[in-house]
Protein backbone atom coordinates (compact mmCIF):
# COMPACT_ATOMS: atom_id res chain seq x y z
CA UNK A 1 0.00 0.00 0.00
CA UNK A 2 2.84 2.40 0.81
CA UNK A 3 4.45 1.76 -2.58
CA UNK A 4 1.18 2.53 -4.35
CA UNK A 5 0.40 5.48 -2.12
CA UNK A 6 -3.12 4.15 -1.70
CA UNK A 7 -5.03 2.78 1.29
CA UNK A 8 -6.67 -0.56 0.48
CA UNK A 9 -9.35 -2.60 2.22
CA UNK A 10 -8.55 -5.07 5.00
CA UNK A 11 -9.85 -8.64 5.23
CA UNK A 12 -12.61 -7.79 7.78
CA UNK A 13 -13.75 -4.95 5.52
CA UNK A 14 -14.01 -7.34 2.58
CA UNK A 15 -16.32 -9.58 4.61
CA UNK A 16 -18.81 -6.81 5.46
CA UNK A 17 -22.14 -7.23 3.68
CA UNK A 18 -23.97 -3.99 4.51
CA UNK A 19 -24.22 -1.56 1.59
CA UNK A 20 -22.55 1.31 3.46
CA UNK A 21 -19.41 -0.81 3.90
CA UNK A 22 -19.34 -2.16 0.34
CA UNK A 23 -20.10 0.96 -1.69
CA UNK A 24 -18.80 4.31 -0.45
CA UNK A 25 -16.67 7.32 -1.28
CA UNK A 26 -14.05 8.96 0.94
CA UNK A 27 -10.77 10.85 0.68
CA UNK A 28 -9.05 7.74 -0.70
CA UNK A 29 -11.41 7.52 -3.66
CA UNK A 30 -14.50 5.65 -4.81
CA UNK A 31 -14.77 2.18 -3.25
CA UNK A 32 -16.75 -0.80 -4.51
CA UNK A 33 -16.60 -4.27 -2.95
CA UNK A 34 -18.18 -6.79 -5.28
CA UNK A 35 -18.75 -10.56 -5.26
CA UNK A 36 -17.14 -12.69 -7.98
CA UNK A 37 -18.24 -16.27 -8.58
CA UNK A 38 -15.69 -19.10 -8.64
CA UNK A 39 -15.38 -22.88 -8.36
CA UNK A 40 -12.39 -24.36 -6.53
CA UNK A 41 -10.32 -27.41 -7.45
CA UNK A 42 -12.97 -29.70 -5.92
CA UNK A 43 -15.77 -28.01 -7.92
CA UNK A 44 -17.20 -26.33 -4.82
CA UNK A 45 -18.87 -23.04 -5.74
CA UNK A 46 -18.34 -19.81 -3.85
CA UNK A 47 -18.32 -16.03 -4.02
CA UNK A 48 -15.15 -14.09 -3.31
CA UNK A 49 -15.16 -10.35 -2.61
CA UNK A 50 -12.96 -8.10 -4.73
CA UNK A 51 -12.26 -4.56 -3.55
CA UNK A 52 -12.11 -1.87 -6.24
CA UNK A 53 -10.86 1.66 -5.59
CA UNK A 54 -10.87 4.40 -8.22
CA UNK A 55 -8.72 7.43 -7.49
CA UNK A 56 -7.04 9.98 -9.75
CA UNK A 57 -7.94 8.02 -12.86
CA UNK A 58 -6.43 4.77 -11.60
CA UNK A 59 -8.16 1.52 -10.65
CA UNK A 60 -6.82 -0.48 -7.71
CA UNK A 61 -8.04 -4.04 -7.09
CA UNK A 62 -7.60 -6.28 -4.07
CA UNK A 63 -8.59 -9.96 -4.14
CA UNK A 64 -7.71 -13.12 -2.26
CA UNK A 65 -7.69 -15.67 -5.08
CA UNK A 66 -7.47 -16.15 -8.81
CA UNK A 67 -10.92 -15.64 -10.31
CA UNK A 68 -12.29 -16.87 -13.67
CA UNK A 69 -13.60 -13.43 -14.67
CA UNK A 70 -10.16 -11.84 -14.24
CA UNK A 71 -8.46 -14.69 -16.07
CA UNK A 72 -10.90 -14.42 -18.97
CA UNK A 73 -10.51 -10.64 -19.10
CA UNK A 74 -6.71 -10.91 -19.27
CA UNK A 75 -7.02 -13.29 -22.22
CA UNK A 76 -9.32 -10.88 -24.02
CA UNK A 77 -7.11 -7.89 -23.24
CA UNK A 78 -4.26 -9.46 -25.20
CA UNK A 79 -6.26 -9.27 -28.42
CA UNK A 80 -8.53 -6.29 -27.75
CA UNK A 81 -7.73 -2.68 -26.98
CA UNK A 82 -9.73 -0.39 -24.70
CA UNK A 83 -11.84 2.32 -26.32
CA UNK A 84 -11.43 5.18 -23.85
CA UNK A 85 -8.69 3.66 -21.71
CA UNK A 86 -9.90 4.97 -18.35
CA UNK A 87 -10.43 3.34 -14.96
CA UNK A 88 -14.21 3.27 -15.33
CA UNK A 89 -14.00 1.40 -18.61
CA UNK A 90 -11.67 -1.18 -17.07
CA UNK A 91 -14.01 -1.68 -14.09
CA UNK A 92 -17.08 -2.02 -16.30
CA UNK A 93 -15.29 -4.43 -18.62
CA UNK A 94 -14.56 -6.64 -15.61
CA UNK A 95 -18.20 -6.44 -14.52
CA UNK A 96 -19.30 -7.26 -18.06
CA UNK A 97 -17.04 -10.31 -18.12
CA UNK A 98 -18.41 -11.37 -14.74
CA UNK A 99 -22.01 -11.19 -15.97
CA UNK A 100 -21.12 -13.25 -19.03
CA UNK A 101 -19.61 -15.88 -16.73
CA UNK A 102 -22.75 -15.91 -14.56
CA UNK A 103 -24.92 -16.28 -17.66
CA UNK A 104 -22.84 -19.31 -18.66
CA UNK A 105 -23.32 -20.78 -15.18
CA UNK A 106 -27.09 -20.37 -15.47
CA UNK A 107 -27.03 -22.12 -18.86
CA UNK A 108 -24.97 -24.96 -17.36
CA UNK A 109 -27.48 -25.35 -14.52
CA UNK A 110 -30.33 -25.50 -17.05
CA UNK A 111 -28.51 -28.26 -18.94
CA UNK A 112 -27.77 -30.25 -15.77
CA UNK A 113 -31.37 -29.94 -14.60
CA UNK A 114 -32.62 -31.39 -17.87
CA UNK A 115 -30.50 -34.50 -17.33
CA UNK A 116 -31.51 -34.79 -13.67
CA UNK A 117 -35.16 -34.37 -14.60
CA UNK A 118 -35.11 -37.54 -16.71
CA UNK A 119 -33.48 -39.55 -13.91
CA UNK A 120 -35.81 -38.31 -11.19
CA UNK A 121 -39.05 -38.53 -13.17
CA UNK A 122 -38.34 -42.16 -14.08
CA UNK A 123 -38.56 -42.90 -10.36
CA UNK A 124 -36.18 -45.88 -10.46
CA UNK A 125 -34.38 -45.57 -7.15
CA UNK A 126 -30.79 -46.69 -6.85
CA UNK A 127 -27.27 -45.30 -6.85
CA UNK A 128 -28.00 -43.10 -9.87
CA UNK A 129 -31.11 -41.74 -8.16
CA UNK A 130 -29.19 -40.95 -4.96
CA UNK A 131 -26.48 -39.22 -6.98
CA UNK A 132 -29.13 -37.17 -8.80
CA UNK A 133 -30.54 -35.93 -5.49
CA UNK A 134 -27.06 -34.95 -4.31
CA UNK A 135 -26.37 -33.11 -7.57
CA UNK A 136 -29.74 -31.37 -7.31
CA UNK A 137 -28.78 -29.95 -3.92
CA UNK A 138 -25.45 -28.76 -5.31
CA UNK A 139 -27.16 -27.02 -8.24
CA UNK A 140 -29.48 -25.23 -5.84
CA UNK A 141 -26.45 -23.97 -3.92
CA UNK A 142 -24.74 -22.80 -7.12
CA UNK A 143 -27.92 -21.04 -8.25
CA UNK A 144 -28.19 -19.24 -4.93
CA UNK A 145 -24.58 -18.02 -5.14
CA UNK A 146 -25.11 -16.87 -8.74
CA UNK A 147 -28.20 -14.94 -7.67
CA UNK A 148 -26.31 -13.31 -4.79
CA UNK A 149 -23.55 -12.30 -7.19
CA UNK A 150 -26.03 -10.84 -9.69
CA UNK A 151 -27.84 -8.79 -7.06
CA UNK A 152 -24.58 -7.55 -5.55
CA UNK A 153 -23.31 -6.47 -8.97
CA UNK A 154 -26.61 -4.71 -9.59
CA UNK A 155 -26.19 -2.70 -6.38
CA UNK A 156 -22.57 -1.90 -7.27
CA UNK A 157 -23.50 -0.58 -10.72
CA UNK A 158 -26.37 1.50 -9.36
CA UNK A 159 -23.96 3.05 -6.87
CA UNK A 160 -21.40 3.71 -9.61
CA UNK A 161 -23.98 5.39 -11.84
CA UNK A 162 -25.16 7.61 -8.98
CA UNK A 163 -21.78 8.61 -7.53
CA UNK A 164 -19.38 8.69 -10.46
CA UNK A 165 -19.47 11.11 -13.35
CA UNK A 166 -19.19 8.46 -15.98
CA UNK A 167 -18.30 9.45 -19.54
CA UNK A 168 -21.08 8.90 -22.05
CA UNK A 169 -19.68 5.62 -23.32
CA UNK A 170 -19.24 4.15 -19.84
CA UNK A 171 -22.66 5.35 -18.69
CA UNK A 172 -24.33 3.50 -21.54
CA UNK A 173 -22.15 0.45 -20.87
CA UNK A 174 -23.20 0.44 -17.20
CA UNK A 175 -26.86 0.66 -18.16
CA UNK A 176 -26.43 -2.17 -20.66
CA UNK A 177 -24.93 -4.39 -17.96
CA UNK A 178 -27.83 -3.51 -15.65
CA UNK A 179 -30.27 -4.55 -18.36
CA UNK A 180 -28.42 -7.84 -18.74
CA UNK A 181 -28.71 -8.45 -15.01
CA UNK A 182 -32.43 -7.68 -15.11
CA UNK A 183 -32.85 -10.27 -17.86
CA UNK A 184 -30.84 -12.92 -15.99
CA UNK A 185 -32.59 -12.64 -12.63
CA UNK A 186 -35.90 -14.15 -13.88
CA UNK A 187 -33.97 -17.04 -15.43
CA UNK A 188 -32.22 -17.61 -12.12
CA UNK A 189 -35.56 -17.55 -10.30
CA UNK A 190 -36.98 -20.15 -12.68
CA UNK A 191 -34.05 -22.40 -11.81
CA UNK A 192 -35.08 -22.37 -8.16
CA UNK A 193 -38.64 -23.26 -9.16
CA UNK A 194 -37.36 -26.15 -11.29
CA UNK A 195 -35.12 -27.40 -8.49
CA UNK A 196 -37.99 -27.17 -6.01
CA UNK A 197 -40.30 -29.09 -8.38
CA UNK A 198 -37.76 -31.87 -8.90
CA UNK A 199 -37.07 -32.08 -5.18
CA UNK A 200 -40.77 -32.43 -4.39
CA UNK A 201 -41.18 -35.01 -7.15
CA UNK A 202 -38.23 -36.99 -5.78
CA UNK A 203 -39.68 -36.91 -2.27
CA UNK A 204 -43.00 -38.10 -3.69
CA UNK A 205 -41.40 -41.10 -5.41
CA UNK A 206 -39.48 -41.93 -2.23
CA UNK A 207 -42.69 -41.84 -0.18
CA UNK A 208 -44.41 -44.12 -2.70
CA UNK A 209 -41.52 -46.59 -2.48
CA UNK A 210 -41.59 -46.49 1.32
CA UNK A 211 -45.35 -47.10 1.35
CA UNK A 212 -44.88 -50.06 -0.98
CA UNK A 213 -42.27 -51.57 1.35
CA UNK A 214 -44.48 -51.01 4.38
CA UNK A 215 -47.35 -52.72 2.54
CA UNK A 216 -45.18 -55.77 1.88
CA UNK A 217 -44.21 -56.03 5.54
CA UNK A 218 -47.85 -55.64 6.55
CA UNK A 219 -48.87 -58.58 4.32
CA UNK A 220 -46.01 -60.71 5.65
CA UNK A 221 -46.98 -59.95 9.25
CA UNK A 222 -50.58 -61.02 8.56
CA UNK A 223 -49.39 -64.29 6.95
CA UNK A 224 -47.30 -65.19 9.98
CA UNK A 225 -49.89 -64.08 12.52
CA UNK A 226 -51.61 -67.56 13.04
CA UNK A 227 -48.33 -69.42 13.72
CA UNK A 228 -47.34 -66.61 16.01
CA UNK A 229 -50.58 -66.96 17.97
CA UNK A 230 -50.13 -70.73 18.29
CA UNK A 231 -46.53 -70.33 19.39
CA UNK A 232 -47.55 -67.66 21.84
CA UNK A 233 -50.27 -69.81 23.39
CA UNK A 234 -47.93 -72.76 23.90
CA UNK A 235 -45.07 -70.58 24.91
CA UNK A 236 -46.68 -70.07 28.31
CA UNK A 237 -45.75 -72.17 31.34
CA UNK A 238 -48.21 -75.10 31.31
CA UNK A 239 -47.85 -77.97 33.77
CA UNK A 240 -49.41 -80.50 31.38
CA UNK A 241 -47.84 -80.48 27.86
CA UNK A 242 -48.18 -83.98 26.30
CA UNK A 243 -46.93 -82.79 22.93
CA UNK A 244 -43.42 -82.66 24.35
CA UNK A 245 -43.20 -86.46 23.94
CA UNK A 246 -44.22 -86.42 20.27
CA UNK A 247 -41.55 -87.17 17.69
CA UNK A 248 -42.64 -84.19 15.62
CA UNK A 249 -43.75 -82.04 18.52
CA UNK A 250 -41.92 -79.21 20.16
CA UNK A 251 -38.20 -79.10 19.37
UniProtKB/TrEMBL annotation:
It is found in: Cell inner membrane; Membrane. The chain crosses the membrane at residues 213-236. It catalyses: Mg(2+)(in) = Mg(2+)(out). Keywords: Cell inner membrane, Cell membrane, Ion transport, Magnesium, Membrane, Transmembrane, Transmembrane helix, Transport. SUPFAM superfamilies: CorA soluble domain-like, Magnesium transport protein CorA, transmembrane region. It comes from the Bacteria. InterPro entries: CorA_cytoplasmic_dom, CorA_MIT, CorA_TM1_TM2, Mg/Co-transport_prot_CorA, MgTranspt_CorA/ZnTranspt_ZntB. Belongs to the CorA metal ion transporter (MIT) (TC 1.A.35) family. This is Magnesium transport protein CorA. The lineage of its organism: Bacteria, Pseudomonadati, Pseudomonadota, Gammaproteobacteria, Enterobacterales. The gene is corA.
Amino acid sequence: QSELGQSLATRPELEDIEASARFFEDDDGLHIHSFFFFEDAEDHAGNSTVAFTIRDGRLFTLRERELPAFRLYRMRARSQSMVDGNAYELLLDLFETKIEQLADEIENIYSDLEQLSRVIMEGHQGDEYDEALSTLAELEDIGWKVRLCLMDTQRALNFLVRKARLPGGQLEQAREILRDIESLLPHNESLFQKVNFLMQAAMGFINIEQNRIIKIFSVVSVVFLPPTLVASSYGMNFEFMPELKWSFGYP
